[in-house]
Amino acid sequence: PPPAGGPQKKAPPAAAAAAAPAAAPAAPAAEKPKAAAAAGGVSAALVKQLRDATGAGMMDCKKALAENNNNIEEATAFLRKKGMASADKKASRIAAEGAVA
């Protein structure tokens, strides 16, 4: 065995050649966000589009898209309904301090 601080041997060329084909299938993985969205996941592009349209939080948008099969229109309606429900809960609170505009 070589000393702990000594020079290290390079990998044989056969090992480097075996690693190169393994890197090739990684390129098609970049094309899979749409496939992941169809399989039940939510793509970041859809979440961003819904956030830009509604102004809702990222996780709320992701949950809305997941529950509505990645349909932006249905997810927007879902967020509106959810927003109304949370606004109704908060409407009954009393503002004990501060000014109410």
Rg, please? 26 Å
Helix content: 55-70%
List SSEs in N-to-C order: HHHHHH
The biggest beta sheet is recorded as: none
Strand content: under 5%
First-to-last CA distance: 77 Å
* Unreliable parts: 26-39
Shape: elongated
Mean pLDDT: 72
Please, how many helices?
6
What is the tally of beta strands?
Answer: 0
**Class based on secondary structure composition and strand pairing:** mainly alpha
What does this structure look like?
This protein is mostly helical and 101 residues long. 61% of the residues lie in helices and 0% in strands. It contains 6 helices and no strands. It has helices at 13-23, 26-29, 33-38, 44-54, 58-67, 72-91. Helix 4 (44-54) packs across helix 5, helix 4 (44-54) crosses helix 6 (72-91) and helix 5 (58-67) packs across helix 6. The chain is elongated and about 70 Å long. The chain starts with 12 loop residues before the first helix and ends in a 10-residue tail after the last helix. The relative contact order is 0.07.
